[in-house]
Design brief:
Largest interface: A-B, 17 and 29 residues
Number of strands of chain B: 8
Oligomer: heterodimer
Radius of gyration of chain A: 12 Å
Structural class of chain A: alpha+beta
Largest sheet of chain B: 4 strands, mixed
Number of helices of chain A: 3
Helix content of chain B: 25-40%
Structural class of chain B: alpha+beta
Strand order of the largest sheet of chain B: 1-4-6-2
Shape of chain B: globular
Strand order of the largest sheet of chain A: 2-1-5-3-4
Order of helices and strands of chain B: EHEEHEEEHEEH
Strand content of chain A: 25-35%
Chain lengths: 85, 141
Amino acid sequence: MKVKLLFFASLREQLGRPAEELELPPSVNTVAALRDHLRGRGGEWSTVFAPNRALRAAVNQDMAQPAAPIKAGDEVAFFPPVTGG
Amino acid sequence: MKVAIQREDFDLGGEVRAISKKHDIGAVASFVGLVRDVRMTLEHYPGMTERAIRQIVDEAASRWQVMDCTVIHRYGELAPNDQIVLVAVASAHRGDAFAACEFIMDYLKTQAPFWKKEHRAAGATWVEARVADDEAAGRWK
């Protein structure tokens, strides 16, 4: 299934891209599984998606917990804890 | 209810007047956040940022009497003393206006997707999230 990935702030800079379209195997169907999947790319990806790194995720522009499901066509964003205001 | 995510500056007086027109409004509480001592760039998540703030305003309106509300948050390049964020809440009485205004600010700081990058002589660095901000939002639970 195909999903749209977005990266913001320090993640965008470290990964060298703001967005990408990605075809996922059917087993990668939660935010946590996607995070593991991306970490498996190695290099910067293993640093950015390391288990101890504080990350937040959103699915279709709503904050999402690690167990949140992902389905075809979703927009999934990863970013650091927010610092607005 | 107005939520705006914009590069441009805003006028506190004009925004407060705009939500003060109904005759049953007896109180407007407002907060303005400013850049302190360092130049910064504010990044946001177009679409989600506005959506997240609207959800926070809706939550405030379910807890307190919110007769009108304006939230403006800037993004882009900001300099020391620039205004960053405005929250203004109109209600019949001050208690609801104060509480809703503070609630919206506390939640905005932990839930709305904005990221600050500070530009200092030594280089540019992303601001780390503060535990104190999570605690401030947590006390409303």
